[in-house]
TrEMBL record, chains A, B:
Its EC number is 3.5.1.3. It comes from Mastacembelus armatus (zig-zag eel). Pfam families: CN_hydrolase. One of its GO terms (cellular component) is mitochondrion. GO terms for biological process: asparagine metabolic process; glutamine metabolic process; oxaloacetate metabolic process. Transmembrane segments: none annotated. Gene3D superfamilies: Carbon-nitrogen hydrolase. Keywords: Hydrolase. InterPro entries: C-N_Hydrolase, C-N_Hydrolase_sf, Nit1/2_C-N_Hydrolase. This is omega-amidase. The keyword Hydrolase applies. Residues 53-297 form the CN hydrolase domain.
């Protein structure tokens, strides 16, 4: 059993535990051999099968009507699952317009209306659903929060945006999330049977340390629901994703709302998936769309063999370290 | 006196100490006022003047004849200085062909023939000369070493490539620097009257931590003499530079040898300068060329005001830290 399988075994085990199909049954079917617990050939076959999966990114057209946003999201998750997607990603603020004046108006507690829809969509379609983000209300504070649901409909992660979007490019774009939102204080990763996934929201992507820590903790896919604008979008959206992917040799996926020229905040769109070689392998335009990418973890391993920066880092000279849980 | 001037003052002081022009004399001439030591208006005027400088990157055609390489470099440094350049950058392995079979053949001690030429060129042209790199022999070991000379011809820095270039992309490129070279064990920064500069060599650029530490230690320009090849060049050369520049909001400059299709190792060329917004502001093709970029530290400060990631980092959650001097 190689190192890769060693790493994936606990995840596979937990997958089978929750699956209706037993390990031994799968063993027979897959290999046409007698049932045999912990069979090496079986694990190897499954590991190969698990090394590829389809990711869908939903570039949702977001309106001011929450119910419409939720039902459209529900429909597109179903469409994505119908195309064989195992992990589905929604955009930042997928249930409401993005803007400091809207956050409190649309904010919900978690669990609440929007996360209930996400939970049902994940379960109905048997997918890992990264629910973009919604404005969350908790204890009198507002957060920009991403929830992730497993194929059983359970909430498996909540990520509150760590880095609030406060920028001021004169004559172009001024936005101060911190006027209304509070920041999260934790890194956020979740396991799937395929790979571990790191989560950030939009502006979080500008901070390389987050991606570095996720990849050092074995995430092979980073997802960033985001809503870059018409200034920073063309300048930095793709560059940041390609940088995170290449520097850490991971897959990176972003989901933006579709562009709405009539909105107070106009999103750049261009939801994207980048591979560990730094190449864009799937990209939306400005309109509503579902884009797909086949994530290939064997390819990722190959890249890390070819240009082995993950083992060549000079740990004797520098380190990226995670501090204790944030205290803000 | 603003913070910027506070930071630059010691550097300016040391500049004036080494200069034939006295502070008071300059004060009179620049401001048409009575000589007055530590005059705030004077410092302010000088600081503004110092916030821009011209950088030249020499994409040298390197041959197997060391003497030719040195004299061509000498001529192009003169040309660059004639265009007002204050900092001049030469490529990796500028004095000899790049390749494991050549390193020992062309290796020199430092000081030696090649660094003597660099020292004279820096002094003759009154520039900071980042002397690309040369194969260095020291104590029976070989290094890929970058030397930097000040306008007085003094050696002010030696950087030995920290990350050796060991990659294997099947059917494309296999190269193992570590078969013949030993790695350096130190980060390398130097001061100029304009800004602090961080130095890496080629493959060092793939390791984001180095650039992060340089920028956290106030470098505003990073220089990477490098020689990417025909596989990694088109894929990663520009992306890595833009990533380093954008993530750290610094200027980044690379100098490659010109392309020689007959060489055993064919360099990609495309020496480049990127600004802190992540834009390519100057770029060579494949041929020998000198390219120029006006480095504008006020623009850098503006970018850092507009998208203030340098102050928004979550130091309570993560850190990039420098370990003790390497022990390898």
């Amino acid at each position: 059993m190689d190192v890769l399988q060693e790493v994936r075994k606990p995840v596979l085990d937990s997958y089978f535990e929750r699956s209706a199909v037993t390990r031994n049954h799968m063993s027979c079917a897959a290999l046409d051999c007698e049932p045999k617990q912990n069979c090496v050939a079986f694990m190897s076959a499954i590991s190969r099968a698990m090394s590829k999966f389809r990711l869908a990114v939903i570039q949702l057209q977001v309106t001011g009507v929450k119910r419409d946003n939720l039902s459209r999201a529900q429909r597109l998750v179903r469409e994505a699952a119908g195309q064989g997607s195992k992990v589905v990603l929604l955009p930042e603020c997928f249930n409401s317009p993005y803007g400091t004046s809207f956050f409190s108006m649309y904010a919900e507690r978690i669990p609440g209306e929007s996360t209930q829809v996400l939970s049902e969509a994940a379960k109905e379609n048997q997918v890992y659903l990264v629910g973009g983000s919604i404005p969350e209300e908790d204890g009198g504070k507002l957060y920009n929060s991403c929830t992730v649901f497993g194929p059983d409909g359970d909430l498996i992660l909540k990520h509150r945006k760590i880095h609030l979007f406060d920028i001021d490019v004169p004559g172009k774009i001024r936005f101060q999330e911190s006027e209304t939102l509070s920041p999260g204080n934790s890194l956020s990763m979740f396991e799937t049977p395929f790979c571990k996934v790191g989560v950030g929201i939009c502006y979080d992507m500008r901070f390389a340390e987050l991606a570095q820590l996720y990849s050092r903790q074995d995430c092979q896919l980073l997802v960033y629901p985001g809503a870059f604008n018409m200034t920073t979008g063309p300048a930095h959206w793709e560059l940041l994703q390609r940088a995170r992917a290449l520097d850490n040799q991971v897959y990176v996926a972003t989901a933006s709302p579709a562009r709405d020229e009539t909105a107070s905040y106009v999103a750049w769109g261009h939801s994207t998936v980048v591979n560990p070689w730094g190449e864009v392998i799937s990209k939306a335009g400005a309109e509503e769309a579902v884009i797909y990418a086949d994530i290939d973890l064997q390819y990722l391993d190959d890249i890390r063999q070819q240009i082995p920066i993950t083992t060549q880092r000079r740990n004797d000279l520098y380190a990226v370290t995670q501090a204790q849980e944030g205290s803000r």
